[in-house]
């Protein structure tokens, strides 16, 4: 079944690779360049999963997730953090903000798709 996923990353190449993997698996992908841009894309439409980077300009991924979780329509939307950050402290912070899973870059598309299948 096709899901709608929001991919939030300030790197266009990462958005491209993630988007290609997800679209290849039949999903619809909405892209955002940072947390602030992503919040504007949360316009009431159903989003099955958010894949977000942590380190971004304007609004980082953890601040974005906290903000997203205050919106009733997206309170229960699962979030997968896709980041170069691998420290446990960051993971704990991400989980506290509401992230369900953590994937460290560089990633293998099949690992990403398995995580998406589990979460979305």
TrEMBL record:
> PROSITE patterns from the xrefs?
RESPONSE_REGULATORY
Record has Magnesium as a keyword:
no
Q: Which UniProt keywords apply?
A: Phosphoprotein
Gene3D superfamilies reported for this sequence: 3.40.50.2300
One family name in Pfam for this protein: Response_reg
What organism is the protein native to? Answer: Salinivibrio sharmensis
List residues, modification 4-aspartylphosphate. Answer: 53
The record's listing under InterPro entries reads:
Bact_response_regulator, CheY-like_superfamily, Sig_transdc_resp-reg_receiver
SMART domains attached here?
A: REC
Question: In which domain of life is the source organism classified?
Answer: Bacteria
Where do the Response regulatory domain residues begin and end?
4-120
> What's the protein called, per UniProt?
Two-component system response regulator
